[in-house]
């Protein structure tokens, strides 16, 4: 056995324990870092060739592993822009260099431009929201993503483009009987217009619906409503596009009324009184932005002072086959590694992706008690390896002094 070999083995052991102490120190330092994932040092033996008459001691080598797939505890906050993921997936964020990264650190706040950024300065990315349409995602890339921006735009108004009106029409009504209900809609400047829905019975199981602008008495469209023997609407399509251009704008405003698609699918004909359901319409009158909300599907809504919610963005999530093989970067973010697998993008609540919790944060998955235990073990093992080195050095001194 070589004395130098035993000393090198002792040095190898000390270096390994020093690496372990380094990960312990990093874990303790980041025990309060939102979304931080614990680092651990894994040991493996390093064997050197030996002859029959002499053993050549090897050593130990280390590899750092990050427990990225282990979810930390969820803590709740009072900020709607604090986000946590319950389940799989990562937020997609953009760095100052324009490159996208993955992270579980969801402590987002608005910067001076209204973009949502986390404590490390990375900007949250998502897709612009389109009603009734899921954004097209790129499986292995980030094309189509945009920064989630919640900048206040002062007073805003949105013209109506779609709505619905349902009602029960009394089957016992006489031919020629007319029943009326109304719906308020908004023009391009948020001015309100009242539309009257007039239902006139034409014959058994048949009615005519005419929609009229009350101010100008202008007819915007008509539809024939047919019902079967059970009072179920059979007209198809069960919708009517109102000609907004037929209405003169309110004097002095120059505002226009959009064409509005009205759905009347929920209309029935049963043996009871005329009962309108109140109707629904999109758009809003002039109102100031008062805040925002984010639901579990990651849809970001702008909230107006009048209580209206307008969807603006849908937060994108990403995942890989082997999260623990992602490459950690500064700022508590991760980039794709050779062994991590292809990055797959999607949305909260779909596939393997978890749900998004607003007003919550994912804590570090570091256990201080475990780290302190590892620190004590590393200290003692380091000391033991130093004794091996010290003993080899003393024996070497004996060997050198034999010549004296």
TrEMBL record:
Belongs to the flagella basal body rod proteins family. A flexible structure which links the flagellar filament to the drive apparatus in the basal body. It comes from Sinorhizobium kostiense. Residues 179-283 form the Flagellar hook protein FlgE D2 domain. Residues 7-37 form the Flagellar basal body rod protein N-terminal domain. It is found in: Bacterial flagellum basal body. This is Flagellar hook protein FlgE. Keywords: Bacterial flagellum, Cell projection, Cilium, Flagellum. Residues 358-402 form the Flagellar basal-body/hook protein C-terminal domain. Its main location: other. PROSITE patterns: FLAGELLA_BB_ROD. InterPro entries: Falgellar_hook_FlgE_sf, Flag_bb_rod_N, Flagellar_basal_body_rod_CS, Flagellar_FlgE/F/G, Flg_bb/hook_C_dom, FlgE/F/G-like, FlgE_D2, LlgE_F_G-like_D1. Gene3D superfamilies: Flagellar hook protein FlgE. Residues 84-136 form the Flagellar hook protein FlgE/F/G-like D1 domain. It comes from the Bacteria.
């Amino acid at each position: 056995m070589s004395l130098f070999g035993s000393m090198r083995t002792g040095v190898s052991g000390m270096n390994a324990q020093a690496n372990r102490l380094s990960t312990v120190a990093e874990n303790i330092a980041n025990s309060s870092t939102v979304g931080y994932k614990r680092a651990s040092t894994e040991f493996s033996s390093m064997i050197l060739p030996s002859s029959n008459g002499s053993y050549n001691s090897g050593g130990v080598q280390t590899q750092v592993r990050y427990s990225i797939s282990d979810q930390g505890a969820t803590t709740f906050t009072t900020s709607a822009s604090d986000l946590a993921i319950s389940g799989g997936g990562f937020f997609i964020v953009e760095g100052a260099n324009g490159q996208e990264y993955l992270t579980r650190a969801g402590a987002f706040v608005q910067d001076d431009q209204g973009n949502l950024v986390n404590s490390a300065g990375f900007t949250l990315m998502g897709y612009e929201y389109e009603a009734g349409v899921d954004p097209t995602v790129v499986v292995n890339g980030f094309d189509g993503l945009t920064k989630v921006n919640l900048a206040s735009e002062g007073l805003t108004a949105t013209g109506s483009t779609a709505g619905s009106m349902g009602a029960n029409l009394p089957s016992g009504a006489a031919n020629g009987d007319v029943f009326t209900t109304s719906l308020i809609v908004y023009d391009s400047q948020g001015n309100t217009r009242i539309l009257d829905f007039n239902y006139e019975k034409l014959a058994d199981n048949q009615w005519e619906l005419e929609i009229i602008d009350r101010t100008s008495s202008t007819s915007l469209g008509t539809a024939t409503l047919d019902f079967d023997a059970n009072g179920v609407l059979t007209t198809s399509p069960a919708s009517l596009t109102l000609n907004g251009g037929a209405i003169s704008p309110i004097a002095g405003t120059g505002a226009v009324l959009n064409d509005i698609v009205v759905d009347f699918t929920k209309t029935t004909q049963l043996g009871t009184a005329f009962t309108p359901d109140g109707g629904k319409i999109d758009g809003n009158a002039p109102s100031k932005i008062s805040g925002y909300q984010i639901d579990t599907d990651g849809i970001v809504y702008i909230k107006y002072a009048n209580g209206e919610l307008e969807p603006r963005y849908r937060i994108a999530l990403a995942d890989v086959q082997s999260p623990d093989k992602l490459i950690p970067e500064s700022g508590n973010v991760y980039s794709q590694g050779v062994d991590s697998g292809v990055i797959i993008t999607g949305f909260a609540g779909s596939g393997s992706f978890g749900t998004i919790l607003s007003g919550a944060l994912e804590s570090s998955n570091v256990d201080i008690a475990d780290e302190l235990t590892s620190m004590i073990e590393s200290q003692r093992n380091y000391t033991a390896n130093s004794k091996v080195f010290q003993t080899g050095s003393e024996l070497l001194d004996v060997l050198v002094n034999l010549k004296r």
